[in-house]
TrEMBL record:
InterPro entries reported in the protein's UniProt record: cNMP-bd_dom (IPR000595), cNMP-bd_dom_sf (IPR018490), Env_Response_Regulators (IPR050397), HTH_CRP (IPR012318), RmlC-like_jellyroll (IPR014710), WH-like_DNA-bd_sf (IPR036388), WH_DNA-bd_sf (IPR036390)
UniProt keyword list: DNA-binding, Transcription, Transcription regulation
Organism taxonomic ancestry: Bacteria, Pseudomonadati, Bacteroidota, Flavobacteriia, Flavobacteriales
CDD domains: CAP_ED (cd00038)
Transcription regulation as UniProt keyword: yes
Top-level taxon in the UniProt lineage: Bacteria
Name the UniProt record assigns to this protein: Crp/Fnr family transcriptional regulator
Matches recorded under Pfam families: cNMP_binding, HTH_Crp_2
Cyclic nucleotide-binding domain mapped to chain residues: 35-87
Domain HTH crp-type: 152-222
Length: 232
């Protein structure tokens, strides 16, 4: 990992927790103490089970967060981009990270240490309140995902994953702006590579999606949404 200076004052990520609160006088000293660095594509910066080193905020880039299953296979539990928070699972209640995180492309991250984050939570009530709402929303999303995985068939889970990625990262020139392998799509959808390949092939034949290399474009998102609307 390469040290990099990422300025909060010039940051354009209005959804970032730090950016939202830099106008507060109490935040100035903490911002001065943060560190920032760049991870290369595929580089892991959080190792599951390692001691917690605070929270990470994505300045620029894309990240996948994973959790190891009982058979040793990594399940993707979250995909994140500019302004998102990483490493919050277990923060404050555990001494070790409950997840692992990898850069999906060259990614610049800002890191606030455990000590600084705990001080912020004690001293900046506006930040603490917003973080509490964030945790509540993430818990709701996790519960919904567990329900969907239990109720959806494989095709529906793959469609739901493609729609989520499309919604999260958008499309440019007709393809989703995220370079995921078929295995990574399978890890996120809770299935295996072969089934994902089969579903993608079927969706292409039905002219609902297209592929350009590894990238996928949604040709008819409304039709795809209609297939899984009963689960929403």
């Amino acid at each position: 990992m390469k040290e990099e200076l990422a300025s909060c004052s010039s940051c354009v990520n209005e959804n970032c927790f730090i950016k939202k609160h830099i106008h507060l006088e109490q935040m100035k000293s903490y911002i001065e103490r943060k560190r920032s660095f760049t991870c290369k594509k595929a580089q892991q910066f959080i190792i599951e089970g390692s001691p917690i080193q605070g929270l990470y905020f994505i300045h620029k880039g894309k990240v996948k967060t994973v959790k190891t299953g009982i058979n040793g296979r990594e399940q993707i539990v979250r995909l994140t981009k500019d302004g998102d928070t990483v490493g919050f699972r277990g923060f404050g209640t555990s001494k070790r990270y409950l997840i692992g995180s990898y850069a999906l492309e060259d990614t610049t991250l800002c890191n606030f240490s455990n000590e600084d984050m705990l001080e912020i939570l004690h001293n900046v009530p506006e930040f603490t309140f917003d973080l509490m709402l964030f945790y509540a929303e993430e818990l709701n999303k996790s519960e919904n995902n567990i329900r969907k995985i239990a109720q959806m068939n494989v095709r529906e889970r793959v469609i739901d994953t493609l729609l989520y990625i499309h919604r999260k990262f958008g499309q440019i020139n007709g393809v989703i702006e995220l370079d995921l392998s078929r295995k990574e799509i399978a890890d996120f959808a809770g299935t295996n590579d072969e089934q994902v390949i089969r579903v993608i092939s079927s969706l292409k034949k039905e002219l609902l999606i297209k592929t350009v290399g590894k990238k996928i474009g949604l040709v008819n998102p409304d039709k795809l949404r209609s297939e899984i609307k009963e689960h929403k």
